[in-house]
Amino acid sequence: MTDGGDMVGGTIAVPQEGSLTGDARMDRAVECAAGLFLERRIADVRMTDVAEAAGVGVATLYRRFSTKTRLALAAGTLLWRRFNARIVALVESDAFLGMSGASRLERMLRLYAEGYVENAGFVLFIDDLDGLLVTEGAPVDAIAAYGREVDSFYLIFADAYQLGIQDGSVVREVDFPVFYRSVAHALMGVAQKLSRGEVIPSDDFSTGAQELECIVDMAIHALR
Question: What is the pLDDT of residue 17?
Fold first, then answer.
């Protein structure tokens, strides 16, 4: 789930997609890297593979990104932007603006749950990237930009919660940042486990989508 939309003049401001690098050739390299990471997994993609796919010299690629970790973070930022497009479409709709606060929260959470099921490759990439950042560390500047994209809708969630308090659709006040992080981590954690596949017989992911729906149900029930 995603810290950055806001209410402006009665409408909801959402992040806008633009160039990631300010250089069309490097944007193309990031796009190629994202495709390769989704296809082969991060560990199996070399910088030379990306350079060849993007039609740039590998030295040029290293001058811009210096490490595969930085390139993977840029690719992750791009993939989150694309994943978040469905959320942008929702929060810009008249139907969303007509919902109660609790209904806004529920609809956004369900859209994330549905998106994780429909984009298992993306979820598996995020799992790979998390592991890479834990084992190799992450440059502060690169991780900050990536984090902003991941949390780009936090303020829209927070605004929906406050609206729910005002309109009565949310009847239980909570520490919202803790609530948000708990639900976000629970959804992504289960989605990542589903994307990795069953490990022990009791995993039984045949109803995996329902597990994500159950998390949303419990979260909304806790507020209503």
Answer: 58
